[in-house]
Amino acid sequence: MDWIILITIVFLATSLQTSTGFGFSILGTPFLFLIYPAQEAIQINIVLSLFISMIMIYKVRHDINKTLVKRLIIGSTVGITPGLFIYLTFDVETFKIFIGILILILTVLLIFKLTIKRSRIKDFFTGGISGALTTSIGVPGPPLLLYFAGVNTDKSTLRSTTLAYYLFIYLISLIMQIIFAGTNKIVFTSSLIAIPSLLGGILFGQLLFKWINQEAFRIITYVILLITGSYMVISSFL
């Protein structure tokens, strides 16, 4: 039964990730917690997310904003260390509540047409926050999604640029997880078992991407952000 749940979760989460550039962690991780201990669930999420980016990157390479990716990566390398410090010294659940509430507030502002003017400094800052959230609570996506939505980024650029950035941030996260927390056979066995479902989700997500117009993409973005913020707050009390 656990394998069936795993395969179903991975297919749905991969479909969302492939069609939008976001969502695997948000949709997949809470359900992975139902069948795996937290450390294993997080590492399975990282391995599979990294695998998705590796498969997709060649196809979307022409849409990548290379300048933006470089700035996000540079920013994230600065944010990784403070994020690890937060993870090791602060109450992570309290931190999740704060971040969740902030995401909800900013999403509501975006829904009511808050706009952001993109700049070099904001690119670096967004990468820094993303890096910090990756090493502290394992969620790199919300800062990118908020920023890209605020500057009204085209869906193709958003998806491809995010996937390129994830190649870096998830690889670094996996290395740090293994160094500081270790790993085990279950993580990689489960990831291998999930690969056929992941490949099916990639194919289906590609079809969804072609069907989704820019307005629908924007609405999906807001829904993902609202779910992310709500999950962070609610899960901290459970």
Verbal overview:
InterPro entries: TM_pro_TauE-like (IPR002781), TSUP (IPR052017). Belongs to the 4-toluene sulfonate uptake permease (TSUP) (TC 2.A.102) family. The protein has 238 residues and is mostly helical. It has one domain (2-237). 84% of the residues lie in helices and 0% in strands. The protein has helices spanning 2-20, 24-32, 38-60, 66-89, 92-111, 120-137, 141-150, 155-181, 185-211, 214-237. Helix 6 packs antiparallel against helix 7 (141-150). The radius of gyration is 17 Å and the shape is globular.
**What ranges have pLDDT less than 50 throughout 5 or more consecutive residues?**
none
Structure annotation, total helices: 10
Anisotropy-based shape: globular
Task: Report the sheet with the most strands, covering strand number, pairing sense and barrel closure.
Answer: none
Beta-strand content? under 5%
Average pLDDT figure: 87
Order of helices and strands, N to C?
A: HHHHHHHHHH
Distance between the termini: 24 Å
Radius of gyration: 17 Å
